[in-house]
Design the sequence.
């Protein structure tokens, strides 16, 4: 089919990374608040001051960042808790009784923290407690990277399609998947249900139950700094990305009718005669299913799969205005000859060919993550072929989460 080895001349991708830190771990012990005198109620009955305990303890130098900060009050209720590092406030929450406060996310490795807290006993006497400590910094450090695959070079600051997945790649295996997954927070102006799914030990992908609502902003806040990714391995940086979902661009291609229809926000904007895979072999058969637009190049070099120069059917071509929709070599692109097939027959090696004007329009207006639904062939698209994650029912998708 049209590619299998594509070396895009102008293939556009971009990735941003986070760093993981590996080394020996330090242990931390609980700490106590300062000792307070008892107080007097009505001049006769003595009521002890509330006792506040802070973990990590005052002076700790190798506190485990994945254990966070815990502040507890005995004999009273917590009134305030402040945890800071370099002027930044650490998020946290009280329990219903206000006898305990816990940080929401993990702490940063190799960082100094200051905790201040107040509590009151039953007669209103105020107790104060403080703790300053440092999280561990491994001495035998090894770095690794993680990246987001969903941002394409040249699209920075622009928009993404309603099918866009969020993909986080780690360069080494993740053993503690639950801890990593708990640190990944996705928020949207128009929220819909979604879930993460692990693809092996080094990739986790977020997909919504239904397509993203169009025209909104989505944020990924990966609170990874301090997460114990594996034994002796801590993430040292958070990863935050904000991106925009643009128009709902839904392309439907019927290979039996050789016709492509593009709708934008529900309105039909293009009807195009096309030609798909000729079906003589499995690899030359276009896959049926829900694809996503992944990347594009102009031109893209396409070489016959499994054939060498001189073999029957060998080709090595530069194809213009090519938009990738799978990892098995399928593109929507400008026709390279055989215009007579457009709208009449399937003559390609697996790609979807379009007239020149239509191919150029599609290339220039497409967003990464746009939907391309193809029907009418005997070859089913697999959910792990490129970004074809919509091929799995959502209930099945969720089973790949470490938390479900």
Sequence:
């Amino acid at each position: 089919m049209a590619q299998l080895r594509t070396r895009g001349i102008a293939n556009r991708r971009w990735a941003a990374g986070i760093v993981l830190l590996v080394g020996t771990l330090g242990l931390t012990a609980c700490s106590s608040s300062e000792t307070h005198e008892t107080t007097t109620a009505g001049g006769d009955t003595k009521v002890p001051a509330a006792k506040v305990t802070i973990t990590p303890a005052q002076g700790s130098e190798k506190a485990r960042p994945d254990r966070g900060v815990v502040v507890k009050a005995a004999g009273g209720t917590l009134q305030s808790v402040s945890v800071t590092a370099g002027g930044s406030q650490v998020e946290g929450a009280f329990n219903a009784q206000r006898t305990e406060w816990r940080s929401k996310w993990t702490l940063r490795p190799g960082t100094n923290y200051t905790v201040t807290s107040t509590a009151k006993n039953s007669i209103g006497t105020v107790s104060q407690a403080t703790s300053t400590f440092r999280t561990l910094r491994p001495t035998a450090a090894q770095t690794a990277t993680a990246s987001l695959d969903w941002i394409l070079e040249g699209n920075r600051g622009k928009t993404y399609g309603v099918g866009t997945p969020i993909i986080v790649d780690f360069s080494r295996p993740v053993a503690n998947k639950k801890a990593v997954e708990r640190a990944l927070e996705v928020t949207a102006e128009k929220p819909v249900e979604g879930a993460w799914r692990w693809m092996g030990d080094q990739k986790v992908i977020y997909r919504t139950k239904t397509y993203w609502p169009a025209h909104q902003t989505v944020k990924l806040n990966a609170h990874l700094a301090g997460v114990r990714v594996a034994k002796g391995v801590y993430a040292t940086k958070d990863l935050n990305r904000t991106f925009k979902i643009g128009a709902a661009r839904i392309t439907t291609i019927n290979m039996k009718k050789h016709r492509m229809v593009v709708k934008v926000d529900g309105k039909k904007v293009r009807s195009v005669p096309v030609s798909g895979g000729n079906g003589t072999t499995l690899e030359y058969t276009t896959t049926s299913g829900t694809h996503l637009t992944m990347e594009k190049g102009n031109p893209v070099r396409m070489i016959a799969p499994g054939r060498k120069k001189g073999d029957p059917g060998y080709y090595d071509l530069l194809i213009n205005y090519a938009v990738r929709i799978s990892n098995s070599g399928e593109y929507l692109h400008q026709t390279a000859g055989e215009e007579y097939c457009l709208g009449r027959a399937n003559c390609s090696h697996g790609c979807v060919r379009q007239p020149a004007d239509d191919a150029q329009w599609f290339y220039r207006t497409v967003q990464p993550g746009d939907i391309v639904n193809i029907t009418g062939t005997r070859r089913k698209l697999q959910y792990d072929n490129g970004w074809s994650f919509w091929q799995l029912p959502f209930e099945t998708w969720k089973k790949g989460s470490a938390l479900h």
